[in-house]
Design brief:
The protein has about 325 residues and is mainly alpha-helical. The protein has 14 helices and no strands. α13 runs antiparallel to α14.
Length: about 325
Amino acid sequence: MAKYTIKRLLYSAIILFFVMFLIYVLMYNMPGGFLETKARELASRPGANKSYSEWLADLNAQYGMDKGIVLGYFTWLKSAVTGNWGDSWAWTLPVTQEFHNTVWYSFILSLISFIFELLIAIPLGISAARKQYSFTDYFTTVVAMVCISMPTFFLATLLKYVFAVKLGWFDISGMQGRDYGELSRFGQILDIAKHFVLPSITLIIISIGGLMRYTRTNMLEVLNSDYIRTARAKGVPEKEVINKHAFRNTLIPLVTMLGGSLPGLFSGALITETLFSIRGIGYASYTSMTQADIPFTMFYLAFLSILTLLGNLISDLLYGAVDPRVRLAD
């Protein structure tokens, strides 16, 4: 297992190297003269101590744009590895500081949605498989298909119209109410939590459908296995067959899939956060992209690449851990 883990880490590092190279190439060949636009903006600010040409030269040197693609990539990569990602043009803060200011809001929002997704989707999927072709099965299947097909922007708009506009229970968007500054510390926490309700419901609804279908499919496959029929033939109580034998083996593919989704807790929900104006990493990245904020956009793309590779590694390791029949080759 140790050798396998080290080998996978080395493979991941190589893949990440080339992925970041592609990110740099895209930035290098981006049309529209974004560096020129930024240099012109910096030179025109009140109190600017550099001319347009000086700012342009500094920006080109910072991203290695004056050295060609290959040498420029290594110049940028050296700065990135040492933690120097530059300053965000949209947020006028160091990229890492803006990331730290926003990622935890995304993590809390995603964690809440993730927990409720497990609590809702897995029991419903198992119940549908146990009662195949019953009303429960058909109802669960229809709900799952509706959730899978529901566009995020439509669901978010519908929730805001019903619960914010018509009922007035929540604010339409944002993270703070009008009287936020007058509340106690505990009241401020509750106010922020209240603003997270509708975004959380949106994420839960659009995510439970796939997990319900996945759980149902795996549970049906296990229930139709020979050892389940043998256990029933021996007179093992149905509750023990389901809870002890079938459910345990259903968890094997579920754990690997969910393990791969854990890094996604930090990647943010770009559409949902933007629709509800939640200052998470997804909202920050969307705003940065629309404002041609190259430093933050490159950091976010590299961050997503690392999370993807980490998720694949976690899935492989969990599969070997939960299923003793699997032996990962060295």
